[in-house]
Amino acid sequence: MRLTYSLSLIISGLAFFAFTIIGDGYKVGDTATDFSLKGVDGKMVSLTDFPDAKGFIITFTCNHCPYAVLYEDRLIELHNKFAPQGYPVIAINPNDPEVQPADSYEAMQKRAEEKAFPFPYLFDEGQNIYPQYGATKTPHIFLLNKDKVVKYIGAIDDNPRNPDDVKVNYVENAIGAIENGEKPDPDFTKAIGCSIKTKS
Amino acid sequence: MNAITENIFLTFKLFLLSGLLFCNTESYSQSWQLSDLNIIEDFEDMADIFEYDNDTTYLVNFWATWCGPCVKELPYIEEVKSKLSDEKFKLIYVSLDFKKHIETRLLPFLDTHKMTSEMYVLLDSDANSWIDKVDSGWSGSIPFSVVYKGEEKHTFEQQFHSTEELLNIIKPLIH
Fold first, then answer.
1. Nearest to B140 among A9, A12, A191 (CB)
2. Phi and psi dihedrals of A143, rounded to 5?
3. A185 touches chain B (CB under 8 A)
4. What distances in angstroms separate CA B4 from CA A54, A63, A67, B169, one per listed residue?
5. What global pTM score does this model have?
6. CA A141 to chain centre
7. Hey, are the CB atoms on A63 and B151 less than 8 Å from each other?
8. What ipTM does this complex have?
9. Exposed (0-12), middle (13-18) or buried (19+): which is B146, by Cβ within 10 Å?
10. Nearest CB to A102: which of B6, B98, B157?
11. pLDDT tens-digit readout, A126-149
């Protein structure tokens, strides 16, 4: 079934589907580029601003997506637990506010204040950064080590809807693996999320 | 929560505006009940809807009332259904609405938009365990659609912008 299905995909026009199947962006093991994006406090933020970091929990997220909202409190916890250990959360809103007004810079400022985000919440103005990472949805996590090598891509944990029912904390486990000099397992997971909003 | 409420309100307004696009020829008298939904806790219980092996062409659409692009493309999908009503074609929806919103948001939405197709509500939270079973190329964003007949299968991690776009994909499989 799987083989014939792959074959049928190729036959019926690989070029058209290549975009969704292969996609661009980082895979585990790639080195991520740095960025300079404006945070909700008006200051520009780059990864080089964290010279003592042992890694970064880069999280593409936003205001409007219910799945992103479900993870807000868990992102705060993650940052409060791991920033002191050298792994800050860096949140980036990749959406075009003209398509989704709830994700405007002003709305980001408001949400960051309401929730008292302890981590930088940055605006991917012009939408140049998320395609480089290959983020496709919110929330979408890219865990980097201190050399900006991508160590894990995917979800924060295995239960978006109910934090009390989480069985596996993917990001937490991946950080533990990096700390022990091991390869995170899994180093790639999938989750439901909101498509990144572009004019396309 | 304000952003969500606002978003839902916006999409609702959009839907009222786009109401004219719904061209269901069948008269609508249904009032959706909880028992009309296929509420699924474990993906395995619905895995067969992606594997029907017969001469019908299936469109399986993952959506949610909270997903703006999903709600925007629904009129096109509904129109496809109506245009293909005499063909061997079946539309199946998979809603990813939250359990707590099934009665407060999903059921009223289905009534308001006069939807009549088979409706699954997938509550299986461990998406990493089932996304690849739907399609290994799917990253997990919605809307997401699968069009298949037998072993010929096409998947779309994108929003559709017209009825024609969908018909151009589905018709070659039917004939």
1. A191
2. -95, 120
3. no
4. 35, 8, 11, 33
5. 0.84
6. 3
7. no
8. 0.83
9. buried
10. B6
11. 999 999 999 999 999 999 999 999
